[in-house]
Amino acid sequence: MPKMKTHKGTAKRFMVKKSKKGTKVLKRTDGQDHFNSRESGKTKRNKRTDNVVSLPLQKTVVKALPYS
User: Which of 11, 14, 10, 8 is nearest to 50 (CA)?
Assistant: First the structure.
C-alpha cells in the first residue's frame, strides 16, 4: 500500500504539537501579512500569538497531515 500524501496547503497553515496531554493544533492569527502598522496596539499584540483550533477542525487537520 502506498504512503499517504501530506496536504501541503494544510501543512503550511497549521502546526501539530504532541505532548503527554494529547495533540494540539496551532494556527497563526489571520491577517498578518500586510500593513500591520495601522492596527491598534492590542490587535498587534494579539497577532503575535498562535491560536489553538477547535476540536472538529483539529480532527480534519490531523487527517490531512498523516506524518506530523
Answer: 14
Q: Which amino acid is at 7?
A: H
> Which has the closest alpha carbon to 14: 38, 30, 2, 3?
30
How far is it, in rounded angstroms, from Cα 22 to Cα 19? 5
Q: Using an 8 Å Cβ cutoff, are 25 and 3 in contact? A: no
Q: Which element (helix H / strand E) includes 42?
A: helix 41-47
Reported as a single tens digit per residue, the pLDDT across 4-52 is 999 999 999 999 999 898 899 999 988 888 888 899 999 999 988 999 9
